[in-house]
Amino acid sequence: MSWSDSFSQTYVDPQHLIEAEQQVEVFMGIILKACQDKCIPIKYHEPDLNKGEQKCIDRCVAKYISIQTMLGEKMRHMAPQPQNDNSYSSSFS
């Protein structure tokens, strides 16, 4: 395996990374907006959240964290794995 083959397998295009980060931000923004619309009424009469609103928000935050965790795991599995190619060092021993 040549040096360039190894490099191309572990290189991540920065533009693709930026696009992926933007997509995750948009996706999470949509989820947060949906939770806000679902949990907090447009017209409210009290400055504090009531118990139902608090529970709804707690569930939404839990879902948000769960989705973030799932996305992180998926991206970690999709990321190129560094190769420990010891053929270079062993050839000079």
UniProtKB/TrEMBL annotation:
Stored Gene3D superfamilies: Mitochondrial import inner membrane translocase subunit tim13 like domains
Compartments, as annotated in UniProt: Mitochondrion inner membrane
UniProt keywords, alphabetically: Chaperone, Disulfide bond, Membrane, Metal-binding, Mitochondrion, Mitochondrion inner membrane, Protein transport, Translocation, Transport, Zinc
A GO molecular function held by the record: metal ion binding
Topology in membrane: Peripheral membrane protein
Pfam families, A to Z: zf-Tim10_DDP
Limits of the Tim10-like domain: 18-75
Transmembrane helix among keywords: no
GO cellular component, one term: mitochondrial inner membrane
GO annotation, biological process: protein insertion into mitochondrial inner membrane; protein transport
Record text on subunit structure and interactions: Heterohexamer.
Record remark on domains: The twin CX3C motif contains 4 conserved Cys residues that form 2 disulfide bonds in the mitochondrial intermembrane space.
PANTHER family in the cross-refs: MITOCHONDRIAL IMPORT INNER MEMBRANE TRANSLOCASE SUBUNIT TIM10 (PTHR11038:SF16)
Protein purpose: Mitochondrial intermembrane chaperone that participates in the import and insertion of some multi-pass transmembrane proteins into the mitochondrial inner membrane. Also required for the transfer of beta-barrel precursors from the TOM complex to the sorting and assembly machinery (SAM complex) of the outer membrane. Acts as a chaperone-like protein that protects the hydrophobic precursors from aggregation and guide them through the mitochondrial intermembrane space.
Family stated for the protein in its record: Belongs to the small Tim family.
Protein name per the record: Mitochondrial import inner membrane translocase subunit
Species this protein is from: Rhizopus delemar (strain RA 99-880 / ATCC MYA-4621 / FGSC 9543 / NRRL 43880) (Mucormycosis agent)
